[in-house]
Amino acid sequence: MKKIRLISFSLSALFLVSILSSCASNQEQNKETNNKEEQKIEQTSKNEENITIEIGSDNFVSGEKIYNEKCMVCHQKDGKGVEGTFPPLAKSDYLLADKERAILQTLRGSKEPITVNGIEYPGNVMTVFKLTDQEVTDVLNYVLNSWGNNGGTVTIDEVKAARAKIQ
């Protein structure tokens, strides 16, 4: 009788371990799939060309680094800015409404007062940094696709065209 109980207990334990192992494996696979999906943000540009921005890619990491070094002091780590002083970039109706304007303001600053999400912000407070076309592209792609933004993609050709307008 003890042998039967021991065998029954052993089989039950083996079955339980098998189920738990299977669940853990499925959770790990789901986690990997979710991470891969989070790593890519599909965007459609004005010309309907699909462009993928890969979070963790060199350009995205470069954009984050530029943002942290040059923009974060005013716009904050979370992109929410300082109400009434420095506008938010996170979920900003103003930023997301006009990609070319975003490029131009990154290149030359914001001269006039602006209204972002219903709050007015003064002009002439944005520091203008000398950035290469690639740096402007990278930082804008970071900002346009961080903090819940779904702002599309800026190409280096768009930055070059905008720069040519102001020179």
Radius of gyration: 24 Å
State the helix count.
Answer: 6
What is the number of strand segments? 4
- Poorly predicted runs: 6-52
Q: What is the CA–CA distance across the termini? A: 93 Å
CATH homologous superfamily placement of the largest domain: Cytochrome c-like domain
Description of the structure:
By secondary structure, this protein is mostly helical. The protein is built from 6 helices and 4 strands; from the N terminus they run αββαααββαα. Strands 1-2 form a two-stranded antiparallel sheet. A two-stranded antiparallel ribbon has the order 3-4. α2 packs across α5 (133-144) and α4 packs across α6 (156-166). It starts with a helix and ends with a helix.
Keywords:
2 domains; 167 residues; mainly alpha; 4 strands; 56% helix; Cytochrome Bc1 Complex, Chain D, domain 2; two-stranded antiparallel sheet; two-stranded antiparallel ribbon; 6 helices; globular; 10% strand
Lay out the secondary structure:
Blueprint: H1 2-39, E1 40-44, E2 50-54, H2 58-75, H3 93-97, H4 99-108, E3 114-116, E4 119-121, H5 133-144, H6 156-166
Antiparallel strand pairs: 1-2, 3-4
Helix pairs in contact: 2-5, 4-6, 5-6
Short description:
With 167 residues, this protein is mainly alpha-helical.
